[in-house]
Every structure is written in C-alpha cells, then in structure tokens.
Amino acid sequence: MTEHRDVATGPPDEYVEAEVHRLLTEDPAVAEQGITVARRERGLVLQGEVESEHRREEILRRVAERFPDVPVTSDIGVIRTSAPTEIEQLP
Amino acid sequence: MVIRIAAVGDVHLDEDVVGRFRPALEELPDCADVLLLAGDLTRHGTEAEARCVAQEFGGLGVPVVTVLGNHDHQCDQVPQVVKVLEDAGITVLEGNSVVLDCAGGRLGIAGVKGFGGGFAGRCASDFGEPEMKAFVRTTTDSADALGAALRGLDCDVRVALTHYSPVPDTLAGEPLEIYPFLGSYQLGQAIDSAPTALALHGHAHAGTEKGTTPGGVRVRNVAHPVIRQAYSIYHLGDHLDSGEVSRTVSSGIQRTWS
Questions:
Q1: CA-based nearest residue to B187, from B173, B204, B206, B205
Q2: Whether B66 contacts B72, CB under 8 Å
C-alpha cells in the first residue's frame, strides 16, 4: 500500500510547489503571476521581480504562514524605475 | 521627422508604488510625444488602485494611452477603473483607436487587451466544450477588433497596443507550457493585416523585449520586469520599412540623464 507522505514535513513535493505557485497569484495579498517557484533538494526557491519591497516581504510572509515547515529561499528583486539611458531607433 | 514613443506595461500600481515612477515620468515632455501603457496598470483592478494609476500617470504633459490587462479585470470593476483613468485624461483603448498629432506626423494607435490561445501549430481551437469555444472566441473577437481598428486608421504611423503578446518571440524565457496563456498568433495576424510600424505588449514578465510578426512588424514586450526601467523610448522615423532590422543607438539620447 502506498503511504501518503505528509507534505508538511520533509522536502516539498510537486503538490506543494503547485499550491505555492497558485497562492502567489490567487492570494489577494500577493496577486503576482511573475514569480517562479523552483523545487530544489532542500526547499523552494522563489524567483522574480516585484514593484515594491513591501510586496517582496508580503510574499515571504504569506508563504511562510501557509507552509510553515517548507524551507524557502528568496531571490525576489524590486524593479528599478529610473528613466531610460538610451533609445531605440526604428527606421 | 521622428515620432517619439515612450512605453511600459505591467506597472501593477497600488498605494505602495505611488511615487516610484513619477520622477522619471516628469522627464517625458522632453523626450517623448506620447506614453503608451500596455495593461496591468493595477494589481486587482479596483477603483482605488485605478486612482493610484491616475495619480502616478495623470497630468504628465504628454498624452497617455492605455489598454487594460488581465489584472485590471480581477475585481470586475472595469467600468469604474476606465472612468477613473479617463477622468485623469488617460485614453483607454479596447477595440478602437486614437490619432495624435505629433511634431513628426499623425500617430495612430489601435488597442485591445487581447487574450490567450497560443501560437501557430500549438494553439487552442474553437471546438468542443462551450468553455473551450468561449476561450478561443474571446481571442478571435479581440483580434478581429484590433485588425479592424488598425485598418480603419487614417494616420502616418500605426502602432498596435495590446496586453497579451501577438508573437512567441517576446515570450522567450517563459515556460513553453504557458505560452497559450500569454498570447495568440491571431493578434499577430491582425497586426499584419495593416501597415503597422510597431506592436507593443506586456504580460510576459519573464519574456524578452524584441520580436517580429510573421509579416515583419517589429514587436516589443514592454512589461516593466522586462525593460527594468520606468519606460522605454522608441523613435519611429519617416521612411518606415517594416522588414528592416532595428538598430539600437546607445548614444542617441537627446539629453543627459542624471
């Protein structure tokens, strides 16, 4: 008989990866579609860019709240909003 | 003569972002004739978030033209969102167009949000369950509206503005499996049905900036996470050749940026 492993312990499985990915979009406090979730041996890596530091912190807070036993590494940046330094000529 | 277009998409405004874009936006009257926004102006499409957009992108001293994105539909408040934007002087396109008199000529912009479906040979079909047919027909209707709006323009230079991508080129970097949710070839076909000079879109945060339609129209993904600056600037010249490869001129900027 197949023993179902408790997803809350040990390394995250595909279902946790899928749930985290959906949470990032569907949780109104996050609503990000541009964050990727990569499953590594020791946990999940969240990667992408957001519009403010507050949003980055909120993503990590919400994921930790929902999956307290899943180790998460953050590689989320805040996108710059400086004026461009070059133009593109389209003849 | 040159028409100068500034563009960005996917700025996802809410209170926490207000003010971040403004310093760069204040420079627009010196370097662009128009600012085009490629959808996903808000996070959830609420009226309150639209007010943040109006505050950040209103009163810039250059015309601002936008389409909405999927995020702007999330809370089913599209009429309220559109009203707030229009009250701030922002033109919202959906299946229609606008012509602006610029120093370099008459710029025509046709816009739709667009929708998914996928790309030639790997796309959804108008077949089967009602949900599937509704999905594909949404895209077909959107593409038809874009094509009609582009062909109906009376102007010197045509630009197509969408949220979803008209080509797979600018999705490079996104997982292949989600391409059907990022755009449709039907939008490209609509763009190719008129002598379009440039097609701008957003939506694909992990995509790349440059591509072309099968008909040779230059396509640029101006999603904020792709361009990594407040906006990009494109100069469209007098003698457009849609088959010609574009040239990037790093020293072409006409003023010193601090």
A1: B204
A2: no
A83–B250 CB contact, under 8 Å: no
Contact A34, B182 (CB under 8 A): no
| pTM score of the predicted model | 0.91
ipTM: 0.87
Tell me the residue type at B149: A
What's the length of chain B?
Answer: 258
Of B126, B245, B102, B110, which Cα lies nearest the Cα of B166? B110
From the list B197, B229, B240, the residue facing A80 with the nearest CB is: B229
Q: Tell whether B43 lies on the interface with A, counting CB pairs under 8 A.
A: yes
Phi, psi of B67 (to 5 degrees): -115, 165
Q: For every one of its 91 residues, what pLDDT tens digit does chain A have, with 9 covering 90 and above?
A: 444 445 455 667 889 999 999 999 999 999 999 999 999 988 899 999 999 999 999 999 999 999 999 999 999 999 999 999 999 999 8
| Residues with Cβ within 8 Å of residue A75, at least 6 apart in sequence | A45, A46, A47, A48
Residues of chain A whose beta carbon is less than 8 angstroms from a beta carbon of chain B are 28, 31, 33-34, 36, 48-49, 51-52, 54-55, 79-91
Distance CA(B210)–CA(B169), nearest Å, equals 7
Residue found under tokens 């569907």:
A26
What are the CA-CA distances from residue A72 to residues A12, A29, A31 (Å)? 10, 18, 19
